Amino acid sequence: QVRNDLTGVLYGEDIEISDTESFSNDPCTSVKKLKGNDVRIILGQFDEEMAVKVFCCAYDEEMYGSKYQWIIPGWYENLWWESWINSSQCLSKNLLAAMEGYIGVDFEPLSSKRTKTISGRTPQQYEKEYNAKRGDGQSSKFHGYAYDGIWVIAKTLQRAMKYLNATNKHQKIEDFNYTNHKLGKIFLDAMNETNFFGVTGQVVFRNGERMGTIKFTQFQERKEVKVGEYNAVADTLEIINNSIRFQGLEPPKDKTIIQEELRKISLPLYSILSALTILGMIMASAFLFFNIKNRNQKLIKMSSPYMNNLIILGGMLSYASIFLFGLDGSFVSEKTFETLCTVRTWILTVGYTTAFGAMFAKTWRVHAIFKNVKMKKKIIKDQKLLVIVGGMLLIDLCILICWQVVDPLRRTVEKYNMEPDPAGRDISIRPILEHCENTHMTIWLGIVYAYKGLLMLFGCFLAWETRNVSIPALNDSKYIGMSVYNVGIMCIIGAAVSFLTRDQPNVQFCIVALVIIFCSTITLCLVFVPKLITLRTNPDAATQNRRFQFTQNQKKEDSKTSTSVTSVNQASTSRLEGLQSENHRLRMKITELDKDLEEVTMQLQDTPEKTTYIKQNHYQDLNDILSIRNFTDSKDGEKAILKNHLDQNPPAQWGSSDPSRTSKDPIEDINSPEHIQRRLSLQLPILHHAYLPSIGGVDASCASPCVSPSASPRHRHVPPSFRVMVSGL
């Protein structure tokens, strides 16, 4: 009944009852349920024997100390636990540890005020007289209430008698019986009007209930200490100064107080990384100044200064994204943070594509020129490279715009497991962390990573294809390869570590910032530091092909064909590699043709045709056909030689036959001068036209030996050993 009444009163005061447990024998199950429901303040109604079992279970479940407050009846006997400790399985020290700090609630047996009561004695005087008259008899804590109760009866009867005498002279108090409701109501009204100060305090009845004083005691260091009292008549609570001892810094909470705490980026860490970022941007600005100032230098001009500016711009955009990655809810509002989610993604993506897109575009130009198999003049201007970079950025913008429209980034809050308060307060900290996420985050990141990965693979391909270009001002393949390697490795490591440290914003921001700083710095340094060093030491060497320089020195030693190269512009130097490859191919062809010519010459000198013809005494005819002397530039001379040859040897008719030879051996017939002349007229002009123009011989418009500038020195300086005059073909 007491519990039900208390429950109704608590609900009326808007006090929540988390759980109510009842038990008859083993209270441990109920104690576990209370802990599971996060009950922190427990009101207990049990006797001394059950109280020992409850506190033993509380010790086992760690439901004691600074986080819990037990409130139990205070009418137990003094040192009540010592009588029941043997009946439990709990050690005495464990039981006392669990009991420490409990609050006992009981009525006040005697008032502590030193005011005279209705009897003319103070409560202290009454207690002294009571103990003296009691002697060795057993004491009851209700003796004060019994004493005040007698005074209540006396005062009620006195007030009822006065009422009867004043209102009804015929009815007396002696006429009372239990069926007389009228007289009973007079007694009840008289009792409700009772109000005097007794040995138990102020004696007042309200709705038939005694309104007394409630005392509060606390178990402190193995004894109960009075800490306050509640006066029900005046509705006041008095707490004795500094008497209550809580085991924590403050009173226990009625439940676990969960305080959400935003995990934010440390300001010193943000300052340090921002300082490093500023240094990187200063370095990029210095490279930009160097590139613009020396843009007319041959070394810088051949390395595409406009593309270099784009590389620097991309690096500076990547640097700028670090400032945005470090701004969280501790610096900006929720709406601003959501905007930063989109802005920093755009800046980092565009910066990456701008830097590496420009680097790969100018490498593509070198590849397109030096891999030009058709040897056609090919000029690729910077405007075309800008279009290529713009196309890469257009793909980025398409992806980002679709991302923003279809599934934009939002601010999300991730809650982590509760942690104890570092300051020792009776609260639990629930860390929360802000993220930039959307519904299909994995898909969008996969698209971006796939595009960037293809871009990196394309750059690796170009670097590999142009690795043999020996002009340092044009060939950045080694540095591109190093940049791609470093950026790829750092991005993979950074992405993995960043994912694993999602719940540690300081570590995550530090990793992301250092990866961006390292990748941007190493890329800019690999592109510009070698150029700066070369420009300081030997700028001309970087703009010339080392093999081409060696060929030039050889040409200077040759007095007949000496040439000088005074300047190499961008278009001509870009074709050197292709020309060298073609020159090598032609030299191999020359070697093959030399062998063929030597073989034909040996056949002409050693064949049976010549021997048989010599036997026929036709040396003069052969000498007229093969004239081993140099040509003259006079056309009249050519006509004279031709005329002399025709006069001495009239051309034979193809369809005629000589009767004198019909009876000879067929071999001698095919070795006749007419057949030899016919064969030579067919074979030698073919060699003449196919071979001599390739090595600097005559062609249809040249009557004297010509020198091909692309021919090798060995073939160019060897004079022709014979000349073949062809007529009548």
TrEMBL record:
SUPFAM superfamilies attached to this UniProt entry: Periplasmic binding protein-like I
Compositionally skewed regions (Polar residues) per UniProt: 561-575, 650-660
Protein keywords: Cell membrane, G-protein coupled receptor, Glycoprotein, Membrane, Receptor, Signal, Transducer, Transmembrane, Transmembrane helix
GO cellular component, one term: G protein-coupled receptor heterodimeric complex
Domain named G-protein coupled receptors family 3 profile: residues: 269-551
Organism phylogeny: Eukaryota, Metazoa, Chordata, Craniata, Vertebrata
GO biological process, one term: gamma-aminobutyric acid signaling pathway
Subcellular location(s) per record: Cell membrane
Entries under InterPro entries matching the protein: ANF_lig-bd_rcpt, GBR2_CC, GPCR3_GABA-B, GPCR_3_C, GPCR_3_CS, Peripla_BP_I
Region (Disordered): 551-581, 647-669
GO molecular function per UniProt: G protein-coupled GABA receptor activity
Signal peptide (from-to): none
Annotated TM spans: 267-290, 310-331, 343-364, 385-406, 443-464, 484-500, 506-529
Gene: Gabbr2
Species: Pluvianellus socialis
Protein name as catalogued: Gamma-aminobutyric acid type B receptor subunit 2
Family: Belongs to the G-protein coupled receptor 3 family. GABA-B receptor subfamily.
Listed Pfam families: 7tm_3 (PF00003), ANF_receptor (PF01094), GBR2_CC (PF18455)
